[in-house]
Specification:
It holds the Pfam family GST_C. The protein is built from ten helices and four strands; from the N terminus they run βαβαββαααααααα. The chain is of the alpha+beta class.
């Protein structure tokens, strides 16, 4: 087995990205589950700038930031390629990965919205719908199975992790976000994605994840 360790949180969408990538490629690694409150000295040493997970440690060398890790893995272990080889297709994929990351603030705002913070502000779900509409219209209008066509690529990994958060928002806030009638192509894509065997086997339990995230939010609001 390669000297490969992953520091992360099981419920983190960013850790999910790395786990899915490693599992899709069949790469063995040591999983080190971090404590969100009391992070290990190793994690803080490996990521002294942001002090966040996930961090992949390959032969003693740390790589930080989820999608940077995904691309690193894809370059070191090129089988089951996730990053398009064509320069134009690769540029397009990176554009949409960046767009996925730009959605993150709206997702976290929505998680906190109905839990005691921001009730007098504009509902962030509207902003999420704007993002989803763009993805529906610009990425999936040709009704492809995955963003990568017939196989998963880095865009599926990026958006797939965020859709897990969207379902958590639905559970925590008791509101429907991913409406099939509004986003039929995204709904079809996500069903295809989550039913890929490797993804399904490494998908966090919905109830457990929702309960964990709700507890984290409530503790954060109580201490603020």
């Amino acid at each position: 087995m390669e000297d490969l360790k992953l520091h992360g949180f099981w419920f983190s969408p960013f850790t999910m990205r790395v786990v899915w990538t490693l599992k899709l490629k069949g790469i063995a690694y040591e999983n080190i589950e971090e404590d969100r409150v009391n992070k290990s000295p190793e994690l803080l040493e490996y990521n002294p700038v942001y002090k966040k997970a996930p961090v992949l440690v390959h032969s003693g060398k740390p790589i930080c930031e989820s999608m940077i890790i995904v691309e690193y893995i894809d370059e070191i272990w090129p089988h089951y390629s996730l990053v398009p080889r064509d320069p134009y297709e690769r540029a397009q994929a990176r554009f949409w990965v960046n767009y996925a990351d730009q959605m993150v603030p709206a997702l976290f705002a929505a998680l906190y919205f109905k839990c005691g913070a921001g009730e007098e502000k504009e509902n962030p779900t509207e902003k999420i719908w704007e993002h989803l509409k763009v993805i529906e219209d610009q990425c999936l209008s040709d009704k492809r199975k995955f963003f990568g066509g017939d196989t998963i690529n880095i865009v599926d990994i990026a958006f797939g992790s965020l859709f897990k958060v969207l379902y958590t928002i639905e559970d925590v806030n008791e509101v429907k976000v991913i409406e099939t009638e509004k986003f039929p192509l995204l709904h079809s894509w996500f069903n295809n994605f989550k039913n890929v065997t490797v993804i399904k086997e490494n998908f966090p339990d919905r109830e457990k994840m929702s309960a964990t995230i709700k507890s984290i939010i409530e503790k954060a609001l109580a201490s603020s």
